[in-house]
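Entry for the shared binder. Reason: the reviewer on the internal report wants the predicted structure included alongside the sequence.
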Amino acid sequence: AQQPTKPVVYQYLICPFCNRVKSYLDYIDVKYDTVEVNPLTKAEINFPVENKKVPIAFFNGVKVEDSAKIIERITEMGNNGEFEHGFPSKSFFPEDTTHWTEWSEKKLAVMLYPNITRTFEESWECFEYAGKVETWSGFQQTLVRVVGTAAMSLANGKIKKKYNIVDERKELKDTVAVWCDALKGQKFLHGEQPTMPDIMVFGVLKSIEGLRTFNEVMDESPVLKEWYENVKSAMPHPEQQ
């Protein structure tokens, strides 16, 4: 069945949870719109929500909060034949889907924040995107970049403490190594075709693509780099990735 309205994802460009959702939609070839939320004012979230955390998605006008719930909803809709391009078969959801979906959220994603805000320069770099958000005024773009950078640099220690992270770079590389070991030299986690775990882990890493942390981790892990490029190429529209 044709989908009446495009899904809308309220996001931060560098949010790993938002990128998991988008990578899933990209892989199943569902077109969607995004609304970039100002992290300082959150003015774009001008409707009732349980909490103003992104991602928030709308499917046919129905609001879904929390990335895990959004991912569940996409799967449900796909299984019900609500997307125009069909939907992957059951083999796309191997038995370890839940394990890796949770791992991408609770292990990998939490490692990113302390890494991309490790120094003031790195925080500054990760807010470069603010200057490209066309829906914000020049003043808002600058404010988000300056205040966002300072706030993230300050929060770095707090986040590390919360998750007992001591050496963020080393721990990120150790975390990534767990995924690389699981790949066992294969093109994707379960062989020649990507499955849901590949898409979830890819989505988290995609949130920091181009940043210093990303480049460093990829340069040090040829296995990860090759796998990442494989997933990118497997997307229906790799040129958009």
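Summary line for the report: The beta strands are 8-11, 33-36, 56-59, 62-65.
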